[in-house]
Amino acid sequence: MADTADLKMSLAGQGTLVGSAVTAPASGACLADVAGIRITARVVAGLTVAAGERILILRRGSVYWVIASLGAAPAVPPTPPTEEPDPPSDPGDTAPAPKPTVTTGSLVCHPVATSTWRDGHWRTDDGSSTSMDTYQGRYGGSGYGRMSGFAFYGSKPRSLSGATITKATVRLRRLTAGDYSRRSPTLRLVSQSARPGGFPTLNETTTGPALGVSGHVSPSEATFTLPTSWGQAMADGSRGGLGMVISSDSPYMRLAGRSSWSAAWTLTLYWRRSS
């Protein structure tokens, strides 16, 4: 067996060494293998070393000292530490949400009925009660009562439910009745979409276009722009018709109904939808 003197050249200058105990300590020393070289090393008092354990050895001059036990050598190589994944690269600004698709259009609604109310009932003496001309007020000196004319639009405007109404217009033509001067009907928005048995429910009001009598004073015809809210109410279904109603006898005037003019009281709704 080689003694420590034989190792002075081979392990000199190595400093602290890690070896493997070949034997348990006896008389304060044990055999150890260091880098394939077997040496005799003294064991620090009180240190317990078992054969096969890894030990920490300190060289002082020509003497090797076991200064610590590192435990048994692992039976299998330790599992290498799991590498943390690289953080995701900064994608920069996210793409903006796609713009909504906007669809626009117009819906032409011809009235399903044009009618005139007088003296508690719908007039039938001047044509059908659902296609006759529409009157406002009372002819001077007449023994009949005041008249109110109406146009009803059925269910067609409600086909735009959910759309935004951007504009609403109505076609009107004045016919002979009363004086020839330009007069304006007082327009009303009514609840009913079909002619009721009684007088319609009146709601919002606006002043219509100033019209003269056809063939005498111009203009006698107009495409009149209604309040946009009126068109929206028609599309939403809370309103269903238009009327010309005043609380006095004058101005007395007559506007064409379905039987006199095919475009009479035609309502056009301009709309927009987003999706």
Structure summarized in a few sentences:
By secondary structure, the chain is mainly beta. The protein is 5% helix and 39% strand.
Helix content: under 10%
Nearest-angstrom radius of gyration? 53 Å
Number of self-contained structural domains: 2
As for the CATH topology of the largest domain, it is Jelly Rolls
Shape: rod-shaped
Summarize the main sheet: 12 strands, antiparallel
**What is the CATH level 1 assignment of the largest domain?**
Mainly Beta
Protein described:
The protein has helices at residues 8-11, 228-236, and strands spanning 16-21, 29-34, 37-43, 53-60, 63-72, 102-109, 113-118, 121-122, 134-137, 147-152, 164-175, 186-190, 202-207, 221-226, 241-244, 253-255, 267-274. It has 275 residues and is mainly β. It folds into two domains: 4-72, Beta Barrel (OB fold (Dihydrolipoamide Acetyltransferase, E2P)); 102-274, Sandwich (Jelly Rolls), CATH 2.60.120. The longest helix is centred in the C-terminal third of the chain and has 9 residues, at 228-236.
